[in-house]
Structure formats: C-alpha cells, structure tokens
Amino acid sequence: MTSISSYSVLFCTVLLIALIAAPVSGTDTSVNATTAAQPFISAEVSPAQAAVGDPVTVSGVATGGNLTAGVQIWAFAGNYVNVSTVPVNTDGTFSKTYQTAGLPPATYYVIVQSPGKDGSLNIVMDTTGSYSGQVVNTKTGNLVFNFTGTGSVQDSAAAAALSDAFNLPGVDDIYTKCTFQLVAPVTSLPVSTTNAPVATTTTKKSPLLFSTLLAGLGVAGSAFAWHSRK
Asked: Is-above-0.70 flag for pTM?
C-alpha cells in the first residue's frame, strides 16, 4: 500500500506541473501578434521636386486595422485641394499619380489617412466642387475647418489643422505627412539668328620709294634755284 500511494502522489505531481506549463488554447500573448494588429501607415512622394506638367506619385504601405474603405490622400497648396480615396492592395501597398499640368508652382502638402480599427474615415471633406470644401468630423458632424472661403486656412496651417483633427476624441484614424515641390518648367534659351560680321578687305596705300622721294626733292630744288637766279 505504501508503494502504491507513493506512485500515485508522484503521478499527480507530474500531471499538475504539465498542466501549469501548457499554454491556454486560443490565447496568443505574444508581443508580435499584438503589434501586427495595430494600424500602421507610411508614405512618400516621388519625385520630391517636379516641374509643372510632370507627374507626381504618392505611394506607401498601410497595414492593420480595417482597410476595406482604403486610404484617403489629401494634397493641397494655396487654393488647390484634392482629396481622393485609394484602395489598398493585398500586400498593403497603395499608390496614386497626380497630373500637374496647369497647377501653380508651390510647396504641396500631402496627408495620407488610414481609417483605423473601425474601418470608417472619421475626417472627410464635404465637397461642393472638385477642389474646394469643408473638413468635417463624421463622428459628430461638426465642421473642423475650411480650406477656402471666409476663415479658411491654407498650406502649413491647413496641414496643422488637419493633423489636429485626427487627434480629436473618438477619432481613431491614423495619418502620415509628406510634401513635394512643384517648380516652373525650365524653358530653353532662344537660338540667336544674327549673322556674324563679315570681314572687309582694305587696300593699304603703297609707301613712296626712297629713290622717288629723292628725285622729287631734286626737281623741286632745281626749280627753286632756277627761279632765284632770274
């Protein structure tokens, strides 16, 4: 009996240790799994400086959260504002190319917005035209700021106001910022059609020979002497 009881206690002890060490099914407490679920976005503009008329591409990577609605790209400078929703590929990449013909030279601000975990874009532009409108918080329906019109903000001030909007209570959208420079195209200098001056040939006067000069002086001297004797 004593031998059997000892084996029973040993078996129960080993079983208890195994149960404690085993992971709980369906629970992943790894740091990597938690990090992967967090929304992430990055973007860049190529080229960073372009001439008016050359295309400019905004591209990047968006992961985590709910990307069914895609990402929203804001591009603006002065009175120009362009807001576009761009789909995200299965590998997390996205891209949009802008045609710049007719746009004014300026520094253009680009903000790329991901909808976060709820899959809804909380900050949008309520448009009344192609390139104008009001920035609205869809959670509250409140006006955040105007891009155009009375009390509007532009350029760096608009970028700051838009960034602040993503930090409003209840807004889970994330964003990233970048800029690009649009410059006037370089025009080639006109080709000169002025003809080069033509060299003209001048005829040099021949110098008098020394003998001819002496003969002339002799004649003059004779005439003078003859005239004096009269």
From this structure: no
